[in-house]
Amino acid sequence: SKLIDLAVIGGDGIGPEVTAEALKVLRVALPEDVKLETTDYALGAEHYLATGEALSEETIEALRRHDAILFGAVGAAPGDTRIPSGLIERGMLLKLRFAFDHYVNLRPSKLWPGTTGPLRGDAPIDFVVVREGTEGPYTGNGGSLRTGTEQEIATEVSINTAFGIERVVRDAFERAQARPRRKLTLVHKNNVLVHAGHLWTRIFHAVATEYPEVTTDYLHVDAATIFLTTQPERFDVIVTDNLFGDILTDLAAAVTGGIGLAASGNVNPTGAFPSMFEPVHGSAPDIAGTGKADPTAAILSAALLLAHLSHPEAAARIESAVEADLAERAELGVRGTAAIGDAIRSRVAE
Ligand code: NAD
Ligand code: IPM
Ligand code: MN
C-alpha cells in the first residue's frame, strides 16, 4: 500500500529517545510515493503512575487498526518502589504480544563488519533466533498460596501447546530454508523439562521431514550458552521457547557488539494483527536522559518493520547505512543518541 499507518509507543526511559531516532531514519528511507502517518500512544510505567492505566481495551482496539507498531521500551528502574516489578511488563507489553498473537519473536544477531564483540576470533556471526512469543512460562499461569507465611508457595506454569509449538517451529524451518546455510537448531532442556521438552522435540522432528534440505540440530539451553560464546558461528537459525529465547538473545546481543545493536520484531505472520518492532533492550534507567543511549537497535528494528510491510528496498537502505556507520564507529569516537541517529539518517538520505 502507498500509506503506512504506524502506531508509535515510545514508552519509558530511553524508549522515547531511541524511537525518535528510528522515526527520523524511517521517514527518509521510504520511497517518495509512500506516505507515512504516525500516531503516538502514551503508554508505560510513567503513564501508569500518572493515570492508573496500564493498557485499556480501547487502546488495544485503536492499536489494532494500524499497519504496524514501532515500540521503544517500557519499565521502571529495578528497585523503583513506586510500581511493582512486572506490572507494566505484563500488563502492557506482554498483553500486546498476546492480544496481537505475536507468536514469532524474531531476533537477528550478526557481527557487523567493523564491530568487535568481546569474543576472540573473527569468525562471521550471523544467526537469527526465532523465539516463541505467546506461550511458555510467560502466560501468567501460576499463583501464590499461603502468601506471607513460612509455607508460601509460588508457581509459574509453562504452557506449551502442540498448536503453538508447531506454528513457530514451521516458521523457523521456513526461515532456515530461505537462508544460504539452511541450518536450524532447536534449543530446549528436554533432559529435565521432559513434558514440554519432549513435545517440542517430537514436533520439531515431525516438521523436519517436510524440510529435507534443512540440517537440524538440538542443544540443551545450558550448552547453547557455551556455544554462543565459544562457537557462535555454528548457528544459523535457532528456534526456542519464550523464556530461553529471552535469555539467549541478550547473550547473543552481548557477543555481537552489544545490546545497543540488537533489533527485534514481534511478528504475527498471518497478518491478522499488526506486528510490533522494538529493540531487544529495555528502558535503561541507568542512562535515561543522558543522551548516551545507542539508537542503532531501534533503527534496525524500523528496518525489520519496513521489510515486514513489504518495503525490502527501504529496509536494505537502512541496513546499509547502519553498516557504513558501524564500520566507522571506532574512528568516530563517542557519539550521543541524536548524533548517531543523524549520521545514519544522512547516509540513508544520500
Ligand atoms: P536494559 O536492557 O534496560 O538495560 C541493561 C543494560 O544495558 C543497562 O546498563 C543499560 O544502560 C544498557 N543498555 C540498554 N539499552 C542500551 C542502549 N540502547 N544503548 C546503550 N546502553 C544500553 O535492562 P534492565 O536494566 O534489566 O531493565 C530496565 C527496565 O526495562 C526494567 O523495567 C525491565 O523490565 C524493562 N525491560 C523492558 C523491555 C522492553 O520494553 N521490551 C526489555 C527489557 C527490559
Ligand atoms: C524483552 C524483555 C521482555 C521479555 C520483558 C520486559 C517482558 O525482556 O523484550 O526481551 O521478557 O520478553
Ligand atoms: Mn529480554
TrEMBL record:
Cofactor names: Mn(2+); Mg(2+)
What cellular component GO annotations does this protein have? Answer: cytoplasm
Catalyzed reactions per annotation: (2R,3S)-3-isopropylmalate + NAD(+) = 4-methyl-2-oxopentanoate + CO2 + NADH
User: Hey, where's the site called Important for catalysis on this chain?
Assistant: Y138, K189
According to its UniProt record, where is this protein located? Cytoplasm
| Co-factor binding details | Binds 1 Mg(2+) or Mn(2+) ion per subunit.
Annotated binding of Mg(2+), by residue: D222, D246, D250
What is the top EC class of this enzyme, as a single word?
A: oxidoreductase
Q: Which NCBIfam families match?
A: PRK03437.1
Q: Which family does it belong to?
A: Belongs to the isocitrate and isopropylmalate dehydrogenases family. LeuB type 2 subfamily.
- Function, please? Catalyzes the oxidation of 3-carboxy-2-hydroxy-4-methylpentanoate (3-isopropylmalate) to 3-carboxy-4-methyl-2-oxopentanoate. The product decarboxylates to 4-methyl-2 oxopentanoate.
Q: What is this protein called?
A: 3-isopropylmalate dehydrogenase
Q: Give the source species.
A: Actinospica durhamensis
Task: Identify the taxonomic lineage of the organism of origin.
Answer: Bacteria, Bacillati, Actinomycetota, Actinomycetes, Catenulisporales
